[in-house]
UniProtKB/TrEMBL annotation:
Membrane-crossing segments per the record: none
Pfam families: Gly_transf_sug (PF04488)
Organism domain of life: Bacteria
GO cellular component, one term: membrane
Organism whose genome encodes this protein: Xylanibacter ruminicola
InterPro entries: Glycosyltransferase_domain (IPR051706), GlycoTrfase_DXD_sugar-bd_CS (IPR007577), Nucleotide-diphossugar_trans (IPR029044)
Name of the protein in question: Glycosyltransferase sugar-binding region containing DXD motif-containing protein
Keywords: Transferase
Length: 186
């Protein structure tokens, strides 16, 4: 069972843009009784992962948050939402599942990293997190590893974790709950 927790990440310390405030307010409106956990720079000590520290120090917050979102949901369970995701309906129908993933609405075949959920200790998320261990964001030549991105990692791991050889093989049936009816990505 997935706990009723929404994790979100904001590392810059800047004020939230208007769109993000609107989206976060939609969570609170549609998800009364849920817990909302902001992951900011104070979480870095708990996480203790070189990739996160290096990306944060380089002010490449999008890459630092890639690992943080996996860690948050793996450790505590719940759903991760990017701050530009608007919740249109209560997500409670999904909490009985082991995990919730969505596919990008494009030809890329990527798993959508802006929205996912799982119970604490989910083995798929552990597999994703393991890809970061012993990896550095700042490369030996001083450049940044911009090519190592969470959609690639999630796609690679779902193929390792399931019987799918390629995420493009994943098809939705009429009986599948469609999470995109519950959310809108800004």
């Amino acid at each position: 069972m997935i706990p009723k927790i929404i994790h979100y990440c904001w590392l810059s310390g800047d004020e939230f843009p208007t769109l993000f405030k609107k989206c976060i307010n939609s969570w609170k409106k549609q998800l009364p009784g849920w817990e909302f956990r902001l992951w900011d720079k104070t979480c870095l000590e708990e996480i203790n992962e070189p990739w996160v520290y290096e990306a944060y120090e380089a002010k490449v917050y999008s890459h630092a948050s890639d690992y943080i979102r996996l860690y948050a949901v793996y450790k505590y369970g719940g759903f991760y939402l990017d701050c530009d995701v608007e919740v249109l309906k209560d997500l409670s129908p999904f909490i009985e599942l082991d995990y919730v993933l969505s596919k990008e609405n494009s030809d890329s075949g990527y798993i959508e990293a802006a929205i996912f959920g799982a119970h604490a200790g989910n083995p798929y998320l552990r597999k994703c997190m393991e890809k970061y261990h012993d990896r550095h964001f700042i490369l030996e030549d001083g450049s940044y590893d911009y090519k190592f991105i969470i959609p690639d990692i999630m796609m690679q791991c779902i193929c390792e974790y399931t019987v799918l050889e390629n995420i493009a093989d994943f098809k939705l049936s009429q009986s599948t709950m469609q999470i995109y009816h519950y959310l809108c990505i800004g």
